[in-house]
Predict the 3D structure of the following.
Amino acid sequence: MTGNCVGETERPELGATRRATAEDPESMDVALRSRAEALDATDPLRAFRDRFVIDDPDLVYLDGNSLGRLPKATVQRLSLLIRDEWGGELVRAWDHWLDEPARIGELIGLNLLGARPDETIVSDSTTVNLYKLAAAALDARPARTTIVAAADEFPTDRYVLEGLAESRGLTIRWLTGDAVEGLPPGELAAVIDESVALVVLSLVNYRSGSVADLPAVTARAHDAGALILWDLSHAVGATPIELEAGGADLAVGCTYKYLNGGPGAPAFLYVRQSLQPELRTPIQGWFGQRDQFAMGPRYDPRPGIRAWLAGTPGMLALAAVEEGVKLTAEAGIEAIRAKGMTLTEFAIELLDERLSPLGCTLGSPRDPARRGAQVSFRHPDARRLTAELIARGVVPDFREPDSIRFGLPPLTTRFADVAAGVDAMAELLA
Amino acid sequence: MTGNCVGETERPELGATRRATAEDPESMDVALRSRAEALDATDPLRAFRDRFVIDDPDLVYLDGNSLGRLPKATVQRLSLLIRDEWGGELVRAWDHWLDEPARIGELIGLNLLGARPDETIVSDSTTVNLYKLAAAALDARPARTTIVAAADEFPTDRYVLEGLAESRGLTIRWLTGDAVEGLPPGELAAVIDESVALVVLSLVNYRSGSVADLPAVTARAHDAGALILWDLSHAVGATPIELEAGGADLAVGCTYKYLNGGPGAPAFLYVRQSLQPELRTPIQGWFGQRDQFAMGPRYDPRPGIRAWLAGTPGMLALAAVEEGVKLTAEAGIEAIRAKGMTLTEFAIELLDERLSPLGCTLGSPRDPARRGAQVSFRHPDARRLTAELIARGVVPDFREPDSIRFGLPPLTTRFADVAAGVDAMAELLA
């Protein structure tokens, strides 16, 4: 199946086949396999898996939220870029390469972020983009003395903010939230005040997969006159995002997870159009210069989102990003979201049946609307278990202190992978 | 010929064959061709050209100082990295990828920069690295109020410094130098004083190719208690560099020019070991964190140069950098420098004979010791001439206001390319 799948997203019924029980392990394996097969057979996105390189069909890959799989189209595209463009066109290829960061940014912004034109670029790493935007936001609120962020935010976000706060003499107010459910609705409202310059938050938490309420949290930040910066790394390509409708100010996100852009692929950066005249990147590079090749004596930023480019963009990585984004757009984010919810529901059902009796607890929200395309299982031996799973060809990942993450990118994950992953965990724990 | 060529670097005698004159154009072409052929025949590095992809043998490529050619080894390496590592190993490849930025940095530092171990990494763009180092240097000299830089410095360097100066209320003192000869020996000494926190300078100027005196300029900066940051973008891989012996503090440089790392390849960054405890990156990312996967609550930088990593490194681009660096190291920087001097001498000889009578002047130093592996020709119609040359399959580049740059990377440039380039210019101007 190719073509846009929006409209074909009815979710297969869960639990329709006979349930196995822990008392009846023989029948369980058979029943489990047949349930997974039935779900895979009715999966409207199932054909997308064939669009990716799958060297080892027996590998149970549950870590696409760390590094997404390689699209077949990317192999072709990179071969052309390397041999024909770099090798053949040489420097002349810059005539068509120059605008790629903004063109591919636009593709992400319009298809996956609910952004308007000229609000998104692909450039640098998530860390560097977060630094650029957070520094600019703090510059724009010079009289305010506080940053608000989540205590269980992804580490690079926390470390960047810590550095900015230290160099400027600011305070960080850490939201404690809930390790499983994420930020309670009232917590931001309770801590925010007019000393806050900037709120930084992930839309989907990296450990639990909990989803924040973007419009509500954004509104609370704005009530206090603060700017808000969303980290979309674990959300983009897994769940619909509406930056414009939700009133978001700034965003960054990663392209090597659900967007399948490749190891260390460049990140994207979003600045709401109405804020663009007010904010200025701290890293003024020549790719942000209005008349770049005039090489004039003073920095004069380009209009729009291109002002946020810094150095020369890496073209190999950019081309890889585009192919992953195009596949995601082709499948349609609504269909992807629907499958992500079904995959994670299936995983939780299996946890309840098979892993809870063995000492595992759920590390993700039970409400599918509050959960990204990942499920975390908590167990005191999670680190050792993860290593043993990997040794058996089942690849989730471990996150401190006690979480095994099953990342379930809907374009490449089968229900059979979820079943095999849980089955392997149950065997190890039994 | 493979193997290290140091010791085989005797420079072919120039002018040994009969000189053509402008009065005798027919014989000139023949004579010019035979001189170039004789020089190519005795070039000890001539076999290295076969190690690169050359799709169009008639293309006269004189812009390897903007984008170096594609090594054949890189095609193979990237194919393995994309298909087998990303496609096959998936996230498990990070076990061996994690240390690549420091390992490949070390390869550059030890072979090409005269650095000690643990002083060089490959990370981010030249622009971002320059920002990180300049910001850290200014933080380390908080009582000082001035930055010194060259007025004809490469634009991204000037723009980065302008941004840093503006945000900190500092002044930039611009060295005027000489458009052709570069910085006169006394100019820095004349302007520097104890208000200066940081001096930023390119070792090889991007437009003229003039080479600065690294030990002497560094000593002048240190006399005033300032730190110095060298931009090695147009020097690395073209000329020997001795950062440790010259006393340099900080350096950045580009890998997509003479190191053939590919379009927008990541840059390198050097911090002298003795300075490492004193300086701190402004961009505190998770790749700079001591125990990265503990994901601890506070930033605790890794010891050594790895503290300067920020976000997740782009692995495709890093692998490409390594192959280019290995070729350069295999050829040997002394042999590369010797050929670079001979190539540029040949170009200047042809300028004097054939282009000076047609209104061209030399835009690079006449002393080969003061010149990188490029020659600039100045002409009032340089922009139009460059476009017409490119249309004829001769690819130099234009730099404002009036320079045509012939970039002559010694591993890939033939004397025949220089002759053909000058011949085409002479025809267009005649």
In short: Residues 25-72+332-429 of chain B form a domain with the Aspartate Aminotransferase, domain 1 fold (CATH 3.90.1150.10). Chain B is about 40% helix and 10% strand. The first strand of chain B starts at residue 60 and ends at 61.
